[in-house]
Design goal:
heterodimer, A: mainly alpha, MetI-like fold, 14 helices, about 80% helix, flat, B: about 280 residues, mainly alpha, about 75% helix
Chain lengths: ~300, ~280
């Protein structure tokens, strides 16, 4: 019941955010210097004559009052209908969905790598606090979180694709194509999560329930794996959820690096060519992903941790 | 904790001093770039393209025969300068709004904090893309776009600190002595929250360097031919086979500065944590 109330409260808070997002996305075309008609003609490569401007204005529906345009736009936007691209006349919705799938593939694979590496790293660091392994992990974490992915990526390509020839350089289709981009993306987060997990493990390892378990003679390994790790994963889940949206948005650099046809690369090229319907679509889709992931994470955190419910 | 005590505590750790010196050297090299650099960073010499490091070109030359060492030096000014500008502006806006919210309380507090809540749920990179998509690419547009969200962190923390400082007895004493609100804020509250803000500022500066060079790498920030670390990596990426060093050096600089800044920021947080226990 409390959970439901909380979910409703959170959903209500979404209304102003979604409104803001829609205004930003809609306002795009109107805020830019020069007129939208000009941009449309330029992008389409039509010489801007008086007649062409007028027909473009009619075609884009820019000759009507702003609120009518907004209402019409929002009606379409809820169905993810953003019209067609200025550049290649393809339907924005289809382009975005295709790119979204690719980005999810990349983000998912990256998430898998992050989990596989950062959980053991965090646990080992916590078990051997301030010993060699922990110190090595600390140095790796600092390096990882300070490493620009647009520098690491090309170096990995140079090493594994060109020098050693183990992996294909770019493109997609094969699972081998996924490896380098996912690793490049994962490095930053592995550093963050393994430290986060280590710290929360250390916080819990001296709690009374652990002392009690030790007194009962349960093996240390079992205590750490079964009891401490489970409690300590909660803050990691929260951080992870909050960061997943950032990760989706942050794929732009990696996608450009590896020519991965995802959302980020689509957006960067659309910004470059001023393809407004595409940018509008990107903003709405990303904002939706971001908001939904945040909401789900919050709900999961509350569901996992009974103590959280009392503070609602 | 006041600033003097804070720095004294910080300087006790050798690592902090070591990384502080690294940053100082890099910043000085950037400031003195016109004196140190052996060549004009934009001067092309196509006959000498991709030449190996030599006495005249300590890091070799790039695809246009420009001196990489000089470009890396001048890029220090661009990258660190713009990052500093962006971070300082964010800190000033955030701390001002935060202190006003925390000190005034009431409706002002509610409005500013609600604004924070709404903006907090907004993905930064998407906003940057939207704004740059509208007003066009360029480093100042990137900074404007980043500022819209960057002040939040400062505002939240300084608001909470100001609200808790406000009810302390020294503030009441100052008020009894007839100090004005402005005087209380500037002479009493601000100095007490500066160390905290400095810790946030340091970590945030590292993030900003990564973002600004990242956007420049994508071609949305600093534009060619101006030297900037991220933009240089993007140029060098295309010639990684001909000359891997071309993208190596600017990357190492970013890594060096951001690692140093992060470690110092971490130590600052440790120093602050010690105060409460």
């Amino acid at each position: 019941m409390i959970l439901l109330k909380y979910a409703i409260k959170r959903l209500l808070l979404l209304i102003p955010i979604l409104f803001l997002v829609s205004v930003v996305a809609f306002g795009l075309v109107r805020m830019m210097p020069g007129s939208a008609e000009m941009a449309y003609l330029q992008a389409a490569g039509i010489p801007p004559s008086e007649a062409a401007l007028q027909s473009a204005s009619q075609e884009l529906g820019l000759d009507r009052p702003v609120y009518v345009q907004y209402l019409e736009w929002i009606q379409k936007a809820v169905r993810l209908d953003f019209g067609t691209s200025y550049i290649n006349n393809k339907e924005v919705k289809l382009e975005l969905l295709g790119a979204f799938k690719n980005t999810m593939q990349l983000a998912g694979c990256s998430t898998l790598i992050i989990l596989i590496i950062s959980i053991p790293m965090g646990v080992l660091s916590a078990v051997r606090v301030d010993k060699e392994l922990d110190n090595i992990n600390r140095i790796l974490a600092f390096l990882g979180s300070s490493m620009p992915s647009f520098w690491l990526g090309p170096l990995l390509v140079q090493l594994f694709c060109l020098r050693l020839g183990w992996l294909p350089v770019q493109g997609m289709g094969d699972w081998k194509n996924l490896i380098l981009p996912s690793i490049t993306m994962a490095v930053l987060y592995i550093a963050t999560y393994s430290r986060c997990l280590r710290n929360s493990l250390l916080e819990n390892i001296n709690k009374r329930f652990v002392t009690y378990s030790r007194a009962r003679g349960i093996p240390e390994k079992k205590i750490v794996m079964n009891h401490v790790l489970r409690t300590s994963l909660i803050p990691a889940v929260t951080t992870f959820g909050v960061n997943f949206g950032h990760m989706m948005a942050g794929t732009a650099v990696v996608e450009v690096l590896f020519s991965w046809p995802g959302l980020g690369r689509l957006c960067v090229s659309s910004v470059g060519s001023r393809d407004f319907p595409m940018i509008q679509g990107y903003i709405v889709v990303m904002a939706l992903v971001f908001i939904l992931v945040n909401l789900i994470t919050d709900l999961i955190t509350v569901a996992l941790d009974p103590r959280m419910r009392e503070s609602l | 904790m006041n600033l003097k005590k804070f720095f004294k505590k910080l300087m006790k750790r050798k690592m902090t001093v070591f990384f502080g010196v690294i940053i100082l050297v890099i910043v000085l090299a950037g400031i003195l770039a016109p004196l140190i650099a052996p060549h004009d960073p934009l001067e092309q010499n196509l006959e000498l393209k991709f030449s190996m490091p030599s006495a005249e070109y300590p890091m070799g030359t790039d695809h246009l025969g420009r001196c990489i060492f000089s470009r890396v030096l001048f890029a220090t000014r661009t990258t660190l300068g713009f990052s500093m500008l962006c971070t300082v502006l964010a800190a000033v806006i955030g701390i001002t709004l935060g202190i006003i919210a925390g000190y005034k309380g009431g409706v002002t507090d509610t409005i500013i904090m609600r604004l924070c809540d709404v903006l907090y749920a907004f993905p930064g990179i998407v906003l940057v893309m939207a704004i740059v998509g509208v007003i066009g690419v360029g480093i100042f547009n990137i900074i404007i776009a980043m500022l819209i969200l960057q002040w939040l962190w400062y505002a939240r923390v300084s608001r909470n600190l100001a609200a808790s400082e406000k009810v302390r007895s020294y503030v009441a004493a100052a008020r009894l002595c007839g100090a004005s609100d402005w005087k209380i804020i500037f002479r009493h509250i601000l100095p007490n929250i500066i160390p905290n803000m400095l810790a946030i500022f340091t970590v945030d500066f590292g993030h900003t360097i990564m973002s600004i060079s990242g956007y420049s790498f994508l071609g949305l920030g600093v534009q060619a031919p101006q030297a900037e670390w991220g933009a240089m990596i993007n140029e060098g990426r295309n010639y990684i086979n001909a000359d891997p060093w071309m993208m190596f050096w600017p990357g190492i600089m970013i890594l060096l500065v951001v690692v140093s800044v992060n470690i110092i920021g971490d130590h600052m947080r440790d120093a602050l944590d010690g105060q409460s226990s």
